[in-house]
Amino acid sequence: MVLYRTTRRDLLKKAGILGTAAAATSLTWSVPNLVRAQSNEVKFYVRGDEAIFGVFDKLKEAFKEVEPDLTVNIEQAPGDDWHDKFLLKLASGDVPDCLFECDCTITTSIRAGALEPLDDLIAGDSRFNKSDYLDIAFNASVFEEKTYGLPYDGGSLAVFYNKSLFEEAGVELLDPKTPISWDKLIEIGQQMTKDRGGKRANEDGFDAGRILQFGLSPATWLPWVYIWGNGGEVLSKDGKVMLAEPAAIEGMQFVGDLINVHHISPSPQAGDTSTISFQTGNVAMEYNGVWNMVRYNELDFDWDVAPFPTGQKQVSCGWYSPLAITAGAKNKDGAWKWISFCCSEQGQTIVSELGQAVPPLKKLADSPVFLNPDTKPEHKQVFLDQLDSKILRTVGDTYGTYFGGYRKEWGQVFTPLFEEVLRGDKKAADVAPEMQQKLQSLLDTGKVAGIDFEALACTTCG
Amino acid sequence: MSTPGPSTQPVASSTVAPSTRRRGWSALRRRQALDGYLLAAPAILGLLIFTAYPVIYTFYLSFTEYNFVKTPVWVGLANYQDMVGDELFRKSLIQTFYYCALSIPLTLVGSFLVAILLNQGVRGISFYRTIWYLPALVPAAAAAALWRWILNRDFGIVNELLYRLGLPTPGWLVEPEWTIPTLALVAFWTGLGGTMLIFLAGLQGVPTHLYEAAALDGASAWRRLWNVTIPMMSPIIFFNLILGVIGSFQAFTTVYLIYTPTGSGSAGPSDSGMLYLIYLYRNAFQYFRVGYAAALSWVLFLIIVALTLFLFRMQRRWVYYEAEAR
Amino acid sequence: MVVTTSGVEPDTLVEERTTWFAGQRTRRRLGHLAAYLLLTAGGIVMMVPFAWLVSSSLKSPQDIFVIPPEWIPADPRWENYKEVMSKLPFLTYLRNTLIITIGALVGQVASASVSAYSFARLRWPGRDVIFAIILATIMVPYTVTLIPTFILFKQFGWIDTFFPLIVPYWFGGGAFNIFLLRQFFRTIPMELDESARLDGASSWRIFVEIVLPLSKPAIAVVTVFGFLSHWNDFFGPLVYLNSEDHRTLALGLTALQGLAWGRDATHLVMAVSVIMIAPIIVLFFLAQRTFIEGIVLTGIKG
Question: Taking CB atoms and an 8 Å limit, are C257 and A88 in contact across chains?
Fold first, then answer.
C-alpha cells in the first residue's frame, strides 16, 4: 500500500513536470506563426479535395523551374466551409495572397472587398488575350465590369455512366453524339435501379424504400439545367426571377419526380454522405462536370460520357472557376506570377492532362492535350460538343453575372425550399411562389426574410 | 445550489469566534485575506477579462452593425427588431425548444433508471458502470461521424435491423421530421454516462436505514422508489436538470457535423436542424452579421437565465433538502 | 437477526420474520435478475456503435457496402490505419491536440484548485459575493463571450495560434471546476489549517501540504473532465485555428472527409475515429478508480 502510494505520487509529480514542460513548449510553438510572410513567398489558399490538391502539387513542381526563387505555400482547405473559412481568415487579418476561387462564391468575395481587380495585369500580359479564350471562360470572374480572376478549371458537364453496370444489366450504351430524351433517361434509369432484393425499378414488387443501386445522380445542386431544358428560365434579362412560371416549375418537378415517382435517383442527403455515388459504384449515371475526370481516372470499373438528355429543347451547361488575388495580398507580384503560370498555356496543359478541365484556351481545348485517346473516357469530344454556344447555358447568363452577385446566398435561400420538392414533401408548384418572392427580394435589396446579406459588404476594406 | 445535498459530508465549520484567539490574530487574518486575494486573483482576472468584459461588450455590440473589420455603427434596437421578422430565428427557437423538450427528459430519465439498476447491489458494478459510461468519452466530432454512418438510410445498421424486423426504415438524417429525434438520440448516447455517474454517486449516499425502514413498513419497490429514492435524490435531479438545460440550449457540434461531414453550418434537411447556436454561428462567422449575432447571444443568455430562475422557483415544490427537514 | 419483543412469544415472531425475509430475498433475487438483464441488454445496445466503429474501420471500401453487413471482416484491413496517416499528418494533429489539451489542462487544474482553495478556506472580504458571481457565470452561454474574446485575440494576433485555446484556462479554469473543488475542499476539517497556521505555515504551504494531498479524488474528477473537454473540443479549434498544420484531431477528421469528396471514405473516417477515441478510453481505465471515487466524494450534487 505504501509502495503503491509513493509510486503514484511520483507519477503525479512527473506528470506535473511533463505537463508544465508541454505547456511551455506549446507556447513557444505558437510563436513562429506570428512571423510575417517573406517577399519570396506566395501564400495560396486552395479549396477542394485530394485530386485538386494533387494537380496543384504538379503545377508547383513545374513552377519551381520557371521561378526558382519564389516559394508557393499551398494551404489546403478541404470541405464545404472553405469559403467561410477564407472570409474568416481575412476578418482575422490572416490574408493569403491568392486563392482558388469558385464560380459559386466569387461574387460574395468581391462584394466583401476581398479580391483585387486584375484588369491592368491582364491587359499588360500578352498571354491573356481574351479572344484566345472560350466565350464563357471569364464569365465568373467579371463583376460590375471588372475582372477579378483568371479562368483555371472547368468546362462543360455531361452524363458520366458506368459501362460495367450497363453491360451487366444488358442495357445499350449511351450514344456520344445524340442525346437521349428525358423519357428514355427515366426508362434506362429504371433498368439500372436495383432494390435490396435485386429487383429493378421497372419490375413488380420493387421496394423503393430499400434501394441499393440508383440509375441516375441528376445534379440536384444544378436544377437550372432542367429548367432551361424544359424551356423555362431562372432569371429574365431584366432581372425578374422566373421560377414561378409553369416551364420552370415543371423543370424543378421533373427532378423531384426522378427521386419520388420514378425512384431512379437518390435523395440529396443520401447522396451527400457519399455512400451512394458514381465513384462508389452504386450509381449508374451521373450528370457532372468534366473536372471529375481527374477523380475518376483511378476507378476500377469502365466508364464513359454522353451528352445531357434533351427535354423540350437541347441544352448543356458549363463554366470556369478562377484563380484570384486578394485585395490584402502582401505579395501581389508573386501572386500574379503564380496564378498566371497556372492559367497560362503551360499550366493549363498540365491541368488538362491530369483531367481537371477543358482548357479555356481554344487552341488547347481542341487538341490532343485534352482529347488524349490514351486516357478514359473514350468520348471526350462530348465535353467539347456540350460547349457549343448554340446549346450552352451558364448560370446567370441572362442577367447580372451570377445571380446579381448573390450566387452563394441564392443557394442558401433556394436549397432548403427545393429540398422539400426533392423529398417529395411538396410539389414544385407549392414552393415556387415563396422561392420567387424571396429570391426577388434578395436580388433587389440584398435582404431575405430578415437576413441582410449586405452585412458582408466590404468585410476587408477596413 | 449551495444548499448541501443529503449525502454531502458535513461542512466543517469555518466560523471561529475571534475573541477566543490570542492577539496577533488580526495580523494573521490580514495575511490570510491578502493570500486569499492573491490565490483567487487568476479566477477574478479571468472573470473580468473572459466573462464580464465580453458579456458587456457583446451587449454593446448587439446595438450595432459590425462585421469584425469596420468600426461598429450604433443602430439602436434594430437587431432586436430584425428578429421579429426573421423566419430562421423563429425556426431556430422552435427547433431548439423541441430538441430540449425531447433530449433533456430522455437523458434524465434514462440515466436515472440506469443508475437505479446499477445501485441494486449487482455484482460487477464497476464493469457495468464502465460500459454505460464509455459513450460519454467519445468526442463529438467522432460521434457525429459514427452516427452518420450508423443511421445511414441505405447502408446503416439501424435500418438494416429494422428492415429485417419488417419495420419501416426511416430516413434519420434525410427527413426533416426525424431530425430532432435523431439529434436527441445521439445526445442520449453521448450524454447518458456523465449524468448517470452523478446520479449513481447520489444514490450511494442515500442512507440505507431509510430503505430498511420502508421495507419493514412493507413498502413495495415502487413505493420505495417514489417515497424514498426520488425525494432524497431530488436535489441531484434538479442539479442535472439545470445543467441539462444550460447544455442543451447550446448544442452545436453534432448538428454541425452530422449532415455534411466536412461542416458547412448545414442545418439538415430543409433547415430542420437549425438549432439556435447553428444559426448564431452562421450569423457571426458566415454572414458576418456580428451585431445581430451579439443580439442573438444575449437573447439566448436571457432565455437560459429565465429558465434557470423559473426552475429554481419551481424547485420549492418538489426538491427536498434534508437540511430543511432537520 | 433475532428480534425480541416483550409480550410476544419470541419464536413465532422469529419465524414470521424469517419467512418475510425469505420472501424478500427471492423478490430481491428476482429484482437482481431483472436488473442484470436490463443492464446487459442496454449495455449491449450502448456498445454496438463501438463494435460497428471498429468493424467498419477494418473494412475495404467495397466491403463497407456489403448487405447484409459483416460484423467481423473476413479480411481485416489494418492498412486503413496506415493509409489514413499518409493522407493527412495525423501525428501533427495528435501533437497539436496534446499541446492544447495539456497546456489548457495544467492551467485549468492549477488555477481552479488555487482559487477554489481561496474561496473555500481563506477568509477575505467580498469572497462569497465573488464566488456567487463566478457560480452564476455557469449560465452564460459561451457564444455571449465568444465574439469579444475573438476580437480580443485578434488584436493580440493570436488567431490561428494555440493561445486562445490555452490561455483562458489559466484564469480560473472554469466556474464549474472552481465550484466542484470548493465543495470538496470545504469537507476537509478546518482545524487542520488552523493548527498548521499556528505552527507558522503559510496559506500556500497549507494548500500544498494539507489540502491538495487530501483532495486527490476531486482533482482527478476535474482532470478527467478537463481532459475530455479539451481533447474533444471542436468548436474552439473551429473558430480559432484555420491553417492546415495547426489542426487538431477533431478538425483533421472533418478535413479527411473533405479530402475524399464523393468517394466514400467511411472506412478511413472510422479508423481516425478509433485513433481519436482509443487514448481517452485507455486514460479512463487508468484514472477510473480515483475518478469514480472522486465523483462519489465531491458532492457534485449541489
Answer: no
CB A47 within 8 A of CB A82: yes
- Name the 3-class secondary structure at B219: coil
Strand-pair category, A316-325 with A150-162: antiparallel
Tell me the shortest Cα–Cα distance from A24 to chain C, in angstroms: 8
Chain B residues with CB inside 8 Å of A274's CB?
Answer: 261
- Asked whether the beta carbons of C250 and C269 are under 8 A apart, the reply is no
Whether residue C89 contacts residue C245, with contact meaning beta carbons closer than 8 Å, is answered with yes
Compute the distance between CA of residue A186 and CA of residue A257 in angstroms, rounded to an integer: 10
Distance, first Cα to last Cα, chain C: 37
- pTM of the predicted model, to two decimals? 0.86
| Stretch 13-72 of chain C: residues touching chain B, C-beta under 8 Å | 24, 27, 31-32, 35-36, 38-40, 42-43, 46-50, 52-53, 56, 64-65, 67-69
Distance between CA atoms of residues C150 and A92, nearest Å: 9
Region of A282 on the Ramachandran plot (φ > 0 left; ψ -120 to 50 alpha; else beta): alpha
B55 burial type by CB count under 10 A (0-12 exposed, 13-18 middle, 19+ buried): middle
| Shortest CA gap A410–chain C (Å) | 23
What tens-digit pLDDT sequence spans chain A (462 residues)? 333 343 444 544 554 555 555 555 545 444 444 444 457 899 999 998 888 999 999 999 999 999 999 999 999 888 778 888 898 888 878 889 999 999 888 988 998 889 999 999 999 999 999 899 998 999 889 988 899 999 999 999 999 999 999 999 999 999 999 999 999 999 999 999 999 888 999 999 998 888 889 999 999 889 999 999 999 999 998 889 999 999 999 999 999 999 999 999 988 765 455 778 898 889 999 999 999 999 898 888 999 999 999 999 999 999 999 999 999 899 999 999 999 999 999 999 999 989 889 999 998 988 888 998 888 899 999 999 999 999 999 887 877 666 778 888 888 889 889 989 998 999 999 999 999 999 999 988 887 766 666 666 555 443
Count of other CB atoms within 10 angstroms of residue C230: 23
First to last CA, chain A: 66
C-alpha cell at B137: 468519452
CA distance A194 to chain C (A): 13
Chain B residues whose CB is inside 8 A of the C203 CB are 31-32, 35-36, 39
User: What distance in Å separates the CA atoms of residue B186 and residue B252, rounded to the nearest whole number?
Assistant: 12
Largest separation between any pair of C-alpha atoms in chain A: 89
DSSP code of residue C170? G
